[in-house]
Each structure stands twice: as C-alpha cells, then as structure tokens.
From TrEMBL:
<dbReference type="InterPro" id="IPR036249">
    <property type="entry name" value="Thioredoxin-like_sf"/>
</dbReference>
<keyword id="KW-0808">Transferase</keyword>
<feature type="domain" description="GST N-terminal">
    <location>
        <begin position="8"/>
        <end position="89"/>
    </location>
</feature>
<comment type="function">
    <text>Is involved in the conjugation of reduced glutathione to a wide number of exogenous and endogenous hydrophobic electrophiles.</text>
</comment>
<dbReference type="InterPro" id="IPR036282">
    <property type="entry name" value="Glutathione-S-Trfase_C_sf"/>
</dbReference>
<dbReference type="InterPro" id="IPR045074">
    <property type="entry name" value="GST_C_Tau"/>
</dbReference>
<dbReference type="InterPro" id="IPR045073">
    <property type="entry name" value="Omega/Tau-like"/>
</dbReference>
<dbReference type="GO" id="GO:0005829">
    <property type="term" value="C:cytosol"/>
</dbReference>
<comment type="similarity">
    <text>Belongs to the GST superfamily.</text>
</comment>
<dbReference type="GO" id="GO:0004364">
    <property type="term" value="F:glutathione transferase activity"/>
</dbReference>
<dbReference type="Pfam" id="PF02798">
    <property type="entry name" value="GST_N"/>
</dbReference>
<dbReference type="InterPro" id="IPR004045">
    <property type="entry name" value="Glutathione_S-Trfase_N"/>
</dbReference>
<keyword id="KW-0963">Cytoplasm</keyword>
<feature type="domain" description="GST C-terminal">
    <location>
        <begin position="103"/>
        <end position="227"/>
    </location>
</feature>
<protein>
    <recommendedName>
        <fullName>Glutathione S-transferase</fullName>
        <ecNumber>2.5.1.18</ecNumber>
    </recommendedName>
</protein>
<dbReference type="InterPro" id="IPR010987">
    <property type="entry name" value="Glutathione-S-Trfase_C-like"/>
</dbReference>
<dbReference type="Pfam" id="PF13410">
    <property type="entry name" value="GST_C_2"/>
</dbReference>
Amino acid sequence: MANKASHEPITCVDFWCNEFGMRARIALREKRVPFEFVEEDLRVRQRSDLVRRMNPVHRSIPILIHGGRPVCGSINIVEYVDDVWGQEEEEAGHATRLLLPADPLERARARFWADFVDQKVYDAQTRFFTSRGEKKMAAMAELLGHLRRLEAVLGDKAFFGGDEFGFLDVALVPFSAMFYGYEQHGGVDMEAECPALVRWVKRCGERESVREVLPSGLDMYQIHKDFYQIE
Ligand SMILES: N[C@@H](CCC(=O)N[C@@H](CS)C(=O)NCC(=O)O)C(=O)O
C-alpha cells in the first residue's frame, strides 16, 4: 500500500557480498526505489554504531532504514518493500507486480521455501565453507541435495512463481553467486549437478536488478577463500 512514508529517505546498510543483503537490494531495484547504500564491512569484527543502534537484537545486516526507522531481516525487508512500494509503482505509471504471489496458498509456499533457503541451504553452505576433508564433502552433498529439492520446486517454470520473477527468486538467487565457489572449493560441476537451476540463474541474470547487485562468482570465491582461510 502506498503512503506518505514511502517518500522518506531510504538507506540500505549492507556489505556487497552479503547474500541476505542482496535480496533487499534486488527488491528495491525491482521496485525502482532509490536508496543510499551504506557499507558495513563484515571483515571488521566490531559492528558499527549504526548497526548496533538500528538492529540491537541481532546486530546483523541487511538493515533497511526508512525515514529513520529500521526494518531488519532480509525476508522481512523484501516483504516490506512489496507492501510499501507495490502500489506506488502503479501510480507512477508502471504495471504493479508484487514479488509475493497473490494467491494465499502460493504465498505460503513461497515463504516456506524461502525459509528452507535460510535454514537448510545456508546451514549446509556454512558447514561446507568452514569444515575440511570428509565433513566438507558431506556438507557439499547435503547442499546439492537441498538445491536439487529446489530444482524440483522450480520444475519447468521460468521462475519459481511461474512466468514472472518473484519472491522466491529474490530469496534464492544471491546464493547462485556462490556456485563458482562450490565448484572451486568442492570440485563439483554445477551445470551437471543442477542443470535446471543453472538455466534459471542465467534467466535471472538477464534482469537488471540481479545484474546490478550480484557480484561475480570469482569475487565471491576470492572473498570466501580469504574469509574462511581456504587453501
Ligand atoms: N536472518 C538474517 C540473517 C542476516 C545475517 O546473518 N547477516 C550476517 C552476515 S551473513 C551478519 O550481519 N552478521 C553480523 C556479523 O557477522 O557480525 C537476514 O535474513 O537478514
């Protein structure tokens, strides 16, 4: 729903390679919402005063600051952006298209799978990066299992919600920036393992919002290699 608040200044506090934060920035770009990007370098251990003030509970990023008020949690931010700027787009003469599906059952399903990405995919990915040897390979196998499950959800659709890029695409596509890292660190061939998902990644990459936000696989690989001190 559009309201006056939607014209107040918008800031996104994030780090360029934060998969969670990419969701917020893709959603803002999808809605053509201008925002200021304030970088919080996650390589620095101590969180900034801004983050501690705006997200005292978790001290995590992304944080969307709208008219001085924080919205925390990436999925929460994507839904907020949909709520506030969905209607506004229509007023500006663009076709309104919400990221979340209109049908309640489809919305519930999209939220379920977004949560699956946060719980299962992120957890297996973190174990993959932080462990060595057999544990690392077991985490890779688990991660591929989760991605194949998502591939089955995608089916033969262009995007998770059907013909249009939407909520679950926004939630998952930042993780694709790690695919090159999975290949380099895990010795897997993503195209052979998850061909439909790789085709979907290419399709998503044709969107300006995704192109502008997603770092290259090589940059993501380098920063994770340094961060997790992987040889
Ligand atoms: N559920 C949160 C997770 C965000 C999160 O875990 N962010 C991490 C970076 S990946 C963070 O800010 N960590 C703070 C730190 O490392 O000090 C969301 O979706 O926004």
